[in-house]
Specification:
182 residues; alpha+beta; 5 strands
């Protein structure tokens, strides 16, 4: 059993991405794919360690909503090879795709109104826009950006309406709360 599991573990190079108050563990697979460690995703959003597993637990409304926006939740085990001054040696870690991470923080920002998620999205957007403009000025293709637009524009009409309805309810609740004070 353990041998079968070990055969499914992929060797990956590890680095840490400092986010100020937290750190994301990043992994690069032999294929060049980059992934994020699930263990500290919650810390990057201001939550405790078990955040990711609670949010993605089977049968939860959150997982249903995340699946509705294309969150796959696929986790890949990696055997990490540390870089630089990291002396931890090799260790196994569950990882999440960048696309799923973005969907998770987008959900946190838009539905949960998580300020840390909003800040991360803004920082990622600014950094990405700088790269896109740099590529455009250098005459390099920005087709990758158009592919992202296509991917994220595939929300169904019903999914968008669900988000709009939720937002309207939030506004009504805020108005009701405000009118109670006036």
């Amino acid at each position: 059993m353990t041998e079968d599991f070990q055969n499914d573990v992929i060797k990956a190079v590890n680095c840490e991405v400092n986010l100020g108050e937290s750190v994301l563990d990043a992994y690069m697979l032999p294929s060049g794919e980059k992934r994020l460690g699930v263990e500290n995703i919650g810390a990057s959003l201001g939550y405790l360690d078990g955040f990711f597993f609670e949010r993605t637990k089977r049968g939860t409304e959150t997982l249903k909503a995340l699946r509705g926006i294309g969150f796959s939740g696929e986790q890949i085990w990696v055997d990490s090879i540390c870089q630089g001054d990291d002396k931890r040696g090799s260790f196994w870690m569950r990882t999440l795709s960048i696309r799923d991470f973005v969907k998770l923080i987008t959900y946190e920002a838009t539905i949960k109104r998580n300020l840390k998620a909003i800040i991360l999205l803004a920082a990622f957007a600014e950094t990405g826009l700088e790269r896109i403009l740099e590529d455009a000025f250098e005459g390099r293709s920005i087709d990758f950006f158009n592919e992202k637009i296509v991917h994220y524009s595939k929300w169904t009409y019903e999914e968008r309406q669900e988000v709009f309805a939720y937002n309207r309810e939030e506004v009504r609740a805020l108005r009701m709360g405000y009118s109670a004070f006036t």
